Amino acid sequence: MIRCIVSTRGRPLKLLLVFNPHAAAGRAADLLEPVQQALGRFADVDTHRTTGPGDATPWVAQADLSCYDGVLAAGGDGTLFEVLNGLYGNPAGNRPPLGVIPVGTGNAFARDLGLAPGDWERGVELVAAGAKRSFDVGQVESASGTFHFLNIVGAGLPVDVMRFTDRLKVLGRSAYTLGTLWKAMQMRCYPLRIELDGRPLERDCLFVEIANTRFTGTSFLIAPGAEPDDGLLDVILVSRLPRRRVLQLFPSIYEGRHVEYDEVEFWQAREVRIVADEPLGLAPDGEIRGEMPVTIRCLHRDLEVFAPARDERKD
Known about the structure:
Elements: E1 14-19, H1 32-40, E2 44-49, H2 56-62, E3 70-75, H3 77-87, E4 98-102, H4 108-111, H5 120-129, E5 132-142, E6 145-149, E7 152-156, H6 157-165, H7 174-185, E8 190-196, E9 199-211, E10 233-239, H8 243-249, E11 264-269, E12 271-276, E13 283-284, E14 294-306
Parallel strand pairs: 1-2, 1-3, 3-4
Antiparallel strand pairs: 5-6, 5-14, 7-9, 7-13, 8-9, 8-12, 9-10, 10-11, 12-14
Helix pairs in contact: 2-3, 6-7
């Protein structure tokens, strides 16, 4: 475990890099040295290479973060999810700003920072620029425990897709797209009882997504109006629909036009509670974790993130 030592004569920017060499089906390993060199031009960098799934959360939670000016998650959305939950294992006053270095297969959250998939150089530039914004964080209380997310949490189709595409990651970024279409055509729906800030709904859903930011699966513009600092979660419900409508609706998600379909409902809420007839699993930020019943809250502007100003963001 790395321990912080703060110089009494002052110090340059100090960063903790949490690097997942297994991201992008192992292709990220070749980027470790270039990322370290780029960061080393303006900061002192300590590096932790993750050893496997689930490693980053307990490691960051137990790390001494007191002297770091930032903690950087280098990997995909799953790595970011683990680092975020490690940060929330620390007291509120001991959570340095979070940076994103996208070197994974899926980097959906990075899109809201203006980062194209795999654009790790731009991720480094954002950290070097030092600009930060306070982002909302989603807090999930499920039957199996509490966790946090920055991007999105879904149920129904998203979980089915995650389980299916886990074996297809060798295909790269196309795996999630192909898996989503295949599982959507199977048309499995789930009866859900939902409360949005206390307002009750009952729906037979193909899926529900609770979004803090706009993208999922890197390229799907699932919540086109979402803002990560407005204090609200965007809730997308897709009800049962014929297969021909699935084929019509599916391409529209890339441009966010799916919200125009009658079978798609869009809501905003500060707190969302969902109950299913079975212990339905959840898919937060590229992972599978937790199960219903679930309560999801928006923690308004709860974490600093290295990010451009909203009007500088490039989609």
